[in-house]
Amino acid sequence: MKISKAVVDSNIRSAIFDDILGNSTDDYLYDYQKINDRQFGCIVEDINGERRYARIAVIVAEQREDMTADELMAAEIADYNAKQAAKAQRAAEREEKAAKDRAKREAAKKEKEGE
User: How many degrees, rounded to 5, is the angle at CA 114 between CA 113 and CA 115?
Assistant: First the structure.
């Protein structure tokens, strides 16, 4: 008899929350409270002094026939790292263009002042 996906996922989430939060949240900086089967939440103060509600959620990935759980995790990490590298590259290109534009404007300003 195969156990249903809902029960399996719930069991995984419980195991992870127990691992992270343990049976007691007394040792943590924030007061984590169970929101539902998938989430715990707490109230934090942001850098502006505002009270904010933050949630910790456990998402259990679907089983896939084309890759193992290990391969899926590695693929998601690689995808994230590639996107971060592309983002950093675009930021560097924008900064380089901004520096060139600044230099061009300053040169034009000096040339105009020299006339």
Answer: 95
